From TrEMBL:
UniProt-recorded name of the protein: Acyl-CoA synthetase (AMP-forming)/AMP-acid ligase II
Single Gene Ontology MF annotation: ligase activity
Residue intervals of the AMP-dependent synthetase/ligase domain: 28-387
Organism: Mycobacterium rhizamassiliense
Entry annotated with the keyword Isomerase: no
Coiled-coil annotated spans: none
Family designation: Belongs to the ATP-dependent AMP-binding enzyme family.
Taxonomic classification: Bacteria, Bacillati, Actinomycetota, Actinomycetes, Mycobacteriales
UniProt-listed GO biological process terms: fatty acid biosynthetic process
UniProt entry tagged with the keyword Ligase: yes
Length: 524
């Protein structure tokens, strides 16, 4: 048994708390004590050992008690897990199922566990070399059939897909030791305590941050309240109700979720957020104004601004790279250039076991009052490498592709090296432009992409693409241009409005910037 599986077993079997999973159909919670969840995990392990003991197991579906059990069950059987998303609204199920199984096959998965309509779709098109089974059937396998289902680890713990927002997605190979180290680092940073802490999450389990919320709370023996992303999307205010009902002390979400609740806070009532002590903002750039607005709007409901925890993480490092301490809240730093001042969040110090360095470069620091460089990381949470590529040397520094610098309180991330826009001798970070454009009425927050024109024009310029839902495109386009010109000192060459939902995204919801660029170039 791997050290990760052994640690999970100890925590789950001795915990006195529960796993609670939200049921969208009844709007109620299914609750199971953690020792019972581990019993289901042993059932999954027995099923896997009776079915040729695959080295990699695929999981897909809405969160359920059996789904969480299957994660540990795969590790008890010595297998790695790979979690992929279900179909998005409007997808053709047969086509989705074929594509999903092809992705699983490409990374070595030979057994897939699912449930409901997704299970039926997968079974209908499953090839002979991939076994597809119901999660509930596997979880209730007679554990005596194969003896004690605690097998030696055969390889990795997680095969984690990367976002692919600025390039082709890859699969990070994460060892049991790396996963365990990252979860322990998160535990140490926030001093998790099962006697007082409660985790509440709706994040997708196929995303590294969503999976980390589950694993960290399981290893700490904490109560875990788990809902699905679709339940959140149906009404973002559900999140606040869940936090209040669970008396959650710990939660996490991407920046957009905090912005939505802050913007529409006037619709919030009858919730109590006074127990909250850690609210992680990660997975996408943090909007300082929006995050602050969320805290201010939730203060009447007992929310303490010290709980704000802007973070930095990568799939390649299991999840967390830097985190602030509990109670630190949102600290910001200002970077100035010829156009004015721009505010960025301080994302905390490296989690235990990890190291971060910045290699300053005149290429990025020109015209700025800060030395900005490329961020590199290494440490105990790092992947062994990408599937199908040369392994990493753990002593080597890994280039993240992100740009930033250190300030009092930790790391500051400014943007991606691939995304930086150079205009008239100035380097522009796209997030600055995107946050300004999103303030215009009708422009959808989190649905804006700023790009350099590149080959689109003989003269370098700025193009803004945004999803728009409004009546007067001409007026909105003029306002976007005026705001960007006033704040950033740059006049966009073009503002392209697109229909809601048309900007391409990764499976975790991040905008595919390079695909947007290609789309705009094809238009020309």
């Amino acid at each position: 048994m791997s050290e990760l599986a052994a640690a999970m077993t100890r925590s789950m079997q001795t915990a006195t708390t529960e796993l609670s999973v939200f049921d969208k159909e009844t709007s109620g919670w299914h609750r199971r004590p953690w020792p019972e969840v581990h019993g289901l995990a042993e059932g999954v392990a027995a099923w896997l050992l009776d079915h040729d003991r695959p080295t990699a197991v695929g999981l897909v579906g809405e969160p359920s008690v059996e789904f969480i059990a299957a994660i540990q069950g795969a590790w008890l059987a010595g297998a790695a897990i790979s979690i992929l998303p279900g179909p998005v609204r409007g997808a053709e199920l047969r086509q989705w199922a074929s594509s999903t199984l092809a992705r699983f096959r490409g990374i070595g998965v030979t057994a897939v566990l699912s449930q409901g309509l997704q299970l039926e779709s997968l079974q209908d098109v499953a090839p002979v070399d991939i076994t597809v089974e119901d999660l509930a059937t596997a979880a209730h396998t007679n554990r005596s059939a194969s003896g004690l289902p605690h097998a030696d680890a055969t390889g990795y713990a997680i095969l984690q897909g990367t976002a692919g927002s600025t390039g082709s997605p890859k699969t990070a190979m994460l060892s049991p030791g790396a996963v365990l180290s990252n979860m322990r680092g998160l535990d140490q940073r926030f001093a998790l305590d099962a006697s007082i802490d409660v985790m509440c999450s709706w994040l997708p389990l196929f995303h590294d941050m969503g999976l980390a919320c589950v694993l960290a709370s399981t290893l700490a023996g904490m109560p875990l309240w788990l809902a699905s992303p679709t339940a959140f999307s149906a009404s973002p205010f559900n999140w606040l109700k869940w936090l209040s009902e669970s008396r959650a002390t710990f939660t996490a979400a991407p920046n957009l979720a905090f912005n939505i609740l802050g913007k529409y806070a006037s619709l919030v009532s009858d919730v109590d957020l006074s127990a909250m002590r850690v609210a992680i903002n990660g997975g996408e750039p943090v909007d300082c104004e929006g995050f602050t607005k969320f805290a201010e709007a939730m203060a009447p409901f007992g929310f303490d601004a010290g709980a704000l925890a802007p973070s930095y993480g990568l799939a390649e490092s299991t999840c967390a790279v830097t985190l602030p301490g509990s109670g630190v809240g949102l600290n910001t730093v200002t970077v100035s250039d010829a156009s004015g001042s721009h505010k960025y969040p301080v994302l905390g110090e490296a989690v235990p076991g990890m190291e971060v360095r910045v290699l300053p470069s005149d290429r990025y620091s020109e015209n700025l009052d800060r030395e900005i460089g490329e961020i590199e990381i290494r440490g105990t949470s790092m992947m062994d490498g990408y599937l199908g590529q040369a392994p990493l040397d753990r002593d080597d520094w890994f280039p993240t592709g992100d740009l930033g610098f250190f300030d009092d309180g930790g790391l500051v991330v400014c943007g991606r090296a691939k995304e930086i826009i150079s205009i008239a001798g100035r380097n522009i970070f796209p997030t600055e432009i995107e946050l300004i454009a999103a303030q215009v009425s009708g422009v959808r927050q989190g649905c804006v992409v700023a790009l350099g024109t590149g080959e689109r024009s003989a003269r370098p310029g700025l193009v803004v693409a945004a999803e728009f839902r409004g009546e007067n495109e001409t007026q909105a386009r003029t306002e976007v241009i005026q705001r960007i010109a006033s704040v950033c000192g740059i006049v966009p060459a073009d503002v392209v409005f697109m229909t809601p939902g048309s900007l391409p995204r990764t499976s975790s919801g991040k905008l595919r910037r390079l695909e947007v660029r290609r789309t705009l170039e094809l238009v020309d």
